[in-house]
Amino acid sequence: MTDDQKAKYRDARWQQKRLRIYERDSFTCQHCGKGPDDSIELNGHHIAYEAGKCPWEYLDHQLITLCQPCHEKEHNSLLDGMKALQQELRGIGFMLK
């Protein structure tokens, strides 16, 4: 993550948006169900990213609450999917930079 991206996640607009999402989701991970009684770290997760959009510009339904382990799994599975797609494209002769 770049310094500019880090600054956006420290922005008060994102902090307010993230808190609203946590409240909507009852401070509970939407994947595993762990909540306030489980002493977990929560993350506001963007379901899909849109180029050029700031974190707080997403609509509420585009965000969910995840615990740190589920958030990491979500991003790791996304990376794995991208790698698999790259291999598949290379297999049919598509050149990637």
Number of helices: 3
Order of strands, main sheet, comes to 1-2
The mean pLDDT is 86
Gap between N and C termini, in Å? 21 Å
Task: Report the helical percentage.
Answer: 40-55%
Q: How much β-strand is present in the residues? A: 5-15%
Could you give the count of β-strands?
2
Shape: globular
Oligomer: single chain
Which blocks of ≥5 consecutive residues have pLDDT under 50?
none
Biggest sheet overview: 2 strands, antiparallel
The run of helices and strands is: HHEEH
Structure description:
Strands 1-2 form a two-stranded antiparallel ribbon. With 97 residues, it is mainly alpha-helical. The chain contains three helices and two strands; from the N terminus they run ααββα.
Précis, in short:
The chain is mostly helical. It is globular and about 50 Å long.
List the helices and strands and how they pair.
Layout: H1 3-10, H2 12-24, E1 42-46, E2 63-67, H3 68-91
Antiparallel strand pairs: 1-2
Features:
97 residues; mainly alpha; two-stranded antiparallel sheet; 10% strand; globular
